[in-house]
Amino acid sequence: MLVLQIVVVGVTVVGGTLLTFSHIRHLLNDEAAKTAKAVAISVAASPAVLAALSDPDPSVALQPYAERVRREAGLDFITIMSREGRRYTHPNPSQIGGHFLGNTAPALEGRTFTETYTGTLGPSVRAVTPVRDASGHVRALVSAGITVDKLSARLRDQIAAAALTGLIGLSAGIAGASLVSARLRRQTHGLRSAELSRMYEYHNAILHAVREGLLMVDGDRRLTLANDGARELLELPADAEGRHVSDLGLPPSLAESLMSGEDRADEIHLTGDRVLVVSAAAVRSGTRSLGTVVTLRDHTELQALTGQLDAERGFAESLRSAAHEAANRLHTVVTLVELGRADQAVEFATAELRAAQQLTDRVVGAVREPVLAALLLGKTAEAAERGVELSISPDSVLDDVVLDRRDLVTILGNLLDNAVEAAMSGSPPARVDVHLRAEDGTFLVRVADSGPGLGAQTAKDVFRRGWTTKGDGRGLGLAMVGQAVRRLGGAIEVGDDGQGAVFTVRLPLPRDGVDGEASS
Fold first, then answer.
1. Which residues cross the membrane (predicted)?
2. What residue numbers bound the domain in which 266 lies?
């Protein structure tokens, strides 16, 4: 690279110097011709010259005059001659009387002209002009000129100055190229152009091959790079690169995270229909911040499976609790029998069995959707363990619905968990009421609790990622409820009935989305 830069600088300087030489030579020749012509015309117009031509020996008066003008004008010769070309003056007196060497025909015709011709003093740039009398007739000729050797000497002086200037320019160019090359080596960590090209090709292929999203944000918080994975996960526009992060239409929490310029690890953010795990690392050069590198991983499916696993874990915990209670009751029945109180044992066992069967019948009778029925049974038992009564409204009627069951579990499960938490923080008795119904092409879910309720401003923030009444900033359940509702094309409302918060979800059903809807 350095050699290439030196060659380019050298060719540029040498080419510029040669062009300068050519231009200077042309200027010197042009200047010499103009000077010779001006002097020749001036001498030819002098009355003293015309008067001397009438003398028997014109050289006596003309030779001193011509030499004085020649020296003052800086010319090499001024020759005054007759029409036939016989010299009256010459820098070399021995040449006086000789015949002029050169072309005189245009001057005899009355025209002034210039030419380069080899005479007694060698090659010269000369001008020849006529001397006219009062009637306009040509009486004599005047030739003035500068030798090529003298012009060459002046050109050599100019060439030396130009060459020195070119040499200084070449030295400065080489020094500048060396500094640029050294800086380039530092910035590229010593990698050569071929290595940089190969690295770029590899990195470009990697960026487009990885499924995880990758973003690069510069110090001005503008997006400088987004690979295919990031464009798909964030649904970025085609012209996203170069735009400010705040102009990309990202969720506020995610945009704030990208613009913070801080290191972040495995933060969960929600977009329109995705759950993303976001990590960020600040890029620094010394103490100067250059920007941020952000990675995005899609955990939508994993989060849904985690929700299902939590539900199954809740069911298992409910079964464990039920088994534990059943064992206690069985020991009570056995003890009563051993004490000879068989009637009381039968009455106790029958009452417990009747209560459990009534709960199951009430849930299954109202909600014939098996997944939601199982969820409600498990949440009812779990709520009872925590001292909260979870009841299903008498007018709840729900058959199988053609909706994504994972989204339904996410919506109902998180609403119930939130309601139980709220009821436990309110005044006793703690209570949660659930209403489920499918009618007029809409699946309605209403969950009310006896908690402290929500204010108007709080109701706007409950579906924002990180909102929680616990104050730890890690709330995700209600944010996922909002995301699932949007994914199903529904709407959710938050209100307060004076006794606690009320969450109402309306989901559109397909035309055949409810089996036996007419009967319900």
1. 6-24, 159-182
2. 211-298
